[in-house]
Amino acid sequence: MVCRVAIIGAGVSGLASIKCCLDEGLEPTCFERSENIGGLWSFMESPEEGRASIYRSVFTNSCKEMMCYMDFPFPENFPNYMHNSKLQEYIELYAKHFDLLKYIQFKTRVTNIKKHSDFHISGQWNVETQKDGKLESLTFDAVMVCSGHHVYPSIPVDSFPGLEKFQGAFFHSREYKGPEKFRGKKVLVIGLGNSGSDIAVELSHTASQVCISSRSGSWIMSRVWDKGYPWDMLLVTRFESFLKDALPRAISDWLYVRKMNRWFKHENYGLIPVNR
Fold first, then answer.
1. Which of 75, 87, 102, 144 sits between 20 and 30 A of 14, alpha carbons compared?
2. Chosen domain end from 114, 145, 176
3. pLDDT at 156 over 90
4. In angstroms, rounded to a whole number, what is the distance separating the alpha carbons of residues 79 and 14?
């Protein structure tokens, strides 16, 4: 008897899960609430409920050698770091190459997952879905949840007393798509992560003033590292991990801070991370 597996989401992880199930002789069925694959990387002009959302200018922070599928390298003519449209193209090439689309049910939302009545014996799950207003309940031997973790925004309004009296607009980066609406305006970007940095830089060419607020500091790095190589090919290595574990903490920390300060001294800008 073939093991039936339900896969929720047809993004990067969902597609890899379909492929792995097929490799192991399992029978996958993938449920995707939108009408296409790609998940986070499938750009849409407006945020969609229950789906991750990116801005128009998003580029990858990992190089193509470090983020490709193990059994499907990026085409050689693709750049080291890709615009989201190029990564989406790669995802579609992957799905087409391994003929994965036929295992996906599009515009199908998973509304509930619960243990089967004889779960203690069979280990099976009931998966309830909705498509075109029609409800359906199916039984599977296993469930893989690949819906991602960037779907629902978190705005800690309690951390900003008086926010309800603010005369301007405030929103999560999930709603940001481009700088056009901010021409001539003063903007405060809260957070110094990848999205905050990207958006602040992009807005600096359009808005009249842009400020970044960072609670705990951060190391600011370039995607391009020594001799023009991608940063992650040089820093995320077995040797670097060995060195970090082998050296005394004080020395490995000193070496790390020295590397991070190679472009500019973070202390001069009050950016030294709280946890170093």
1. 75
2. 145
3. no
4. 24
**Do 134 and 8 have their domain in common?**
yes
Regarding whether 214 and 93 lie in a shared domain, the answer is no
Quote the pTM value. Answer: 0.89
State yes or no: pLDDT of 186 exceeds 80. yes
CA distances from 213 to 82, 128, 202 (A): 27, 43, 16
Tokens of 89: 């193209």
The mean pLDDT of the chain is 93
User: Using 50, 70 and 90 to split pLDDT, how confident is the model at 152?
Assistant: confident
pLDDT of residue 262: 87
Q: For residue 67, is pLDDT > 80?
A: yes
Q: Are residues 141 and 180 in the same domain?
A: no
Round to whole Å and give the CA distance between 35 and 264: 45
Pair 139, 196 in one domain: no
What pLDDT, on a 0 to 100 scale, did the predictor assign at position 275? 76
Structural domain contains residue 18:
yes
**Domain count across the chain:** 2
Last residue of a domain, one of 97, 112, 145: 145
CA 258/CA 27 separation, integer angstroms: 51
Residue 49 predicted with pLDDT over 90: no
